[in-house]
Design goal:
Blueprint (H helix, E strand, L loop, with lengths): L3 E4 L7 E5 L4 E8 L4 H18 L3 E11 L1 H19 L3 E9 L3 H14 L3 E6 L7
Parallel strand pairs: 3-4, 4-5, 5-6
Antiparallel strand pairs: 1-2, 2-3
Helix pairs in contact: 1-2
């Protein structure tokens, strides 16, 4: 078994990482892939696997600057999977990053939190430089 699942960022896809040993999940950058499910399906499978392997805390960082509608659906599926892990007894921490002047990203995070009924740490940043 690999230690991590990693997809490097491109112009249209975010950096996506699941570190199985550390219990860490990260999605960072811009998301507007041509085939959204093709990009996100392996990432969601990796999140399912981390739940089977890691008995401790699972921490997910969403550091997105932009995502299109089809990506929003996949991000919703990711948050739902994290809720399933939490419901199964895992300690799940979700950190949702938004720039101070990006009300849309802030509201989207709050909407996901409410719809899925899972707590988010909303972290406001001054600029995207802080995401790196």
């Amino acid at each position: 078994m690999k230690e991590s699942y990693i997809r490097e960022a491109t112009r249209t896809t975010p950096y996506a990482c699941v570190n199985f040993q550390a219990g860490k999940i990260e999605l960072q950058g811009r998301s507007s892939p041509e085939n959204t499910m093709e990009f996100y399906e392996p990432f969601i499978r990796a999140i399912t696997m981390i739940g089977k392997l890691n008995k401790e805390k699972i921490e997910a960082d969403f550091k997105l600057m932009y995502f299109n509608t089809s990506s929003a659906r996949c991000i919703y599926l990711i948050v739902k999977q994290l809720k399933r892990l939490e419901d199964s007894g895992k300690n799940v921490v979700i950190n949702w990053y938004a720039e101070e002047d990006d009300e849309d990203m802030l509201e989207t995070g709050m909407d996901f939190q409410d719809i899925v009924d899972i707590n988010f740490n909303i972290i406001m940043t001054k600029s995207t430089d802080e995401y790196v």
